[in-house]
Amino acid sequence: MYLVFSAVLALGLLVAVHIFGTVGYMVLTDGKYSWFDSFYMTFITVATIGFGEIIDMSSNQPARIFTVVIGILGAGNLSLLFSVVTVILLETALDGTLRRKRMEKTVKKLTGHYILCGFGRVGRNIGRELEATNRHYVAIDEDLERIMEYREKNPGLLYLHGDASDDDILLAADI
Question: pTM score, two decimals?
Answer without folding.
Answer: 0.55
